[in-house]
Design a protein that fits this description.
single chain; two-stranded antiparallel sheet; six-stranded parallel sheet
Length: about 200
């Protein structure tokens, strides 16, 4: 019987209040995420893990500001504040997250030349993180996704998982959004169109 994996996306200090790219209410989901992990067959945590000077950081591009959009070889790229730099407290998991429950941790965004919102592919939509093969080897046919942020890393992960033929559910009550210029509504529409099941309320 196919197993279901819970993918917990980027519940890190950098995306919680006080972090360098704080998502409003990002820390509020932690107790619910821990409870969901207790019930899951398989748990995977993802971790944004950027080298200093990453190409997605506005500080790397003189004259640019955070949230500007530039064209990169792989397509449009939002420029972010420096966040989740490798080995920094900002990049660490939220201290209340039950990381010991994880069966695997996938670090993404490690290539300085390309960002990686999705748990499954870098932003060129072609270079895999290795997670799909790991799930396939364990007989996973369905994934439930929670974490941060709804409209970027969660949505990109859900869309990629659906494209790979997995049965995908996103529990919106255990996500929070950045909502950059209507990005949340756009992400919800794209996920529904891709066949992703959306449950709960953000």
């Amino acid at each position: 019987m196919p197993q279901t994996a819970l993918i917990v996306i980027d519940v890190q200090n950098g995306f919680c209040p006080g972090g360098n790219l704080a998502v409003p209410g990002g820390d509020a989901i932690v107790p619910g995420v821990n409870a969901a992990m207790e019930k899951a067959d398989i748990v995977v945590l993802t971790q944004d893990w950027h080298p200093a000077g990453h190409s997605s950081f506005a500080s790397t591009h003189p004259g640019r500001s955070p949230y500007d959009v530039i064209d990169m070889p792989y397509g449009p790229q939002v420029l972010w504040p420096d966040h989740c730099v490798q080995g920094t407290p900002d990049g660490a998991f939220h201290p209340d997250l039950d990381v010991d429950r994880a069966d695997a941790i996938v670090r993404k965004g490690t290539d300085p030349a390309i960002d990686s919102y999705s748990a499954l592919f870098e932003n060129d939509h072609r270079t895999p993180t290795g997670l799909h093969g790991w799930l396939r080897d364990r007989g996973v046919g369905a994934v439930a996704m929670v974490g941060l942020a709804t409209d970027f890393c969660v949505a990109y992960s859900a869309l990629d998982a659906a494209r790979l033929g997995l049965d995908v559910t996103v529990d919106l009550s255990l996500t929070r959004a950045i909502d950059l210029d209507g990005s949340l509504d756009g992400a919800l529409v794209k996920m529904r169109e891709a066949g992703v099941t959306l449950t709960g309320q953000p």
